[in-house]
């Protein structure tokens, strides 16, 4: 995706864009992350996608009932985050959000970049893996405190900040 397309986003659009990427990434990740199963690079063996066989759920990923997110009753208020109309969500095994104001070409470019990233060889992604949650740009798993957690979050993620663009672009890999 070009930096020109990203520069056209204001702060609110950037938040919506990142939210959209996160929701779409979950649908994209399943087939692409299966390519990471045989990664044996130091540090990256913690990535779920490098070891999960689809057969059993490890105990270290099962939260006690009282710690599960279903117990939340309120969400913090954020006046500057635009409302996204989820009433128009459609799809069978995937959810598509409509009326979000993000162009189809930007979405397609973004999905193309995701595919390029996950198609990289493990060696090319290894320099992005960090256990330090203070890093602004990183590929990691769980919450970033993996070795300190009793129960881990079931996720691998790529943190890729984009606001303010001028500062963030200096940290992006080529």
UniProtKB/TrEMBL annotation:
Top-level taxon of the source organism: Eukaryota
Record GO terms (molecular function): L-ascorbic acid binding; metal ion binding
InterPro entries per record: DIOX_N, IPNS-like_sf, Plant_2OG-oxidoreductases
Annotated ranges, domain Non-haem dioxygenase N-terminal: 96-170
Keyword hit for Iron: yes
Pfam families named in the record: DIOX_N (PF14226)
Coiled coil: none
Protein's UniProt keywords contain Cell inner membrane: no
Keywords of the record: Iron, Metal-binding, Vitamin C
Protein name as catalogued: Non-haem dioxygenase N-terminal domain-containing protein
Organism this protein belongs to: Malus domestica (Apple)
């Amino acid at each position: 995706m070009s930096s020109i397309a990203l520069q056209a986003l204001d702060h609110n659009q950037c938040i919506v864009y990142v939210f959209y990427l996160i929701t779409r990434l979950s649908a994209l990740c399943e087939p692409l992350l299966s390519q990471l199963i045989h990664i044996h690079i130091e540090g990256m063996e913690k990535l779920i996608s490098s070891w999960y066989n689809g057969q059993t759920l490890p105990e270290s990923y099962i939260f006690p009932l009282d710690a599960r997110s279903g117990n939340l009753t309120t969400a913090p208020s954020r006046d500057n985050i635009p409302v996204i109309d989820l009433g128009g969500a459609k799809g069978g095994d995937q959810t598509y959000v409509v009326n979000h104001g993000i162009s189809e070409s930007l979405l397609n470019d973004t999905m193309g970049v995701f595919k390029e990233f996950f198609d990289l060889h493990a060696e090319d992604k290894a320099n992005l893996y960090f256990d330090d949650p203070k890093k602004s740009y990183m590929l990691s798993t769980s919450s970033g405190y993996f070795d300190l957690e009793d129960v881990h979050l079931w996720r691998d993620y790529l943190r890729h900040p984009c606001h303010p663009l001028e500062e963030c672009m200096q940290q992006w890999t080529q």
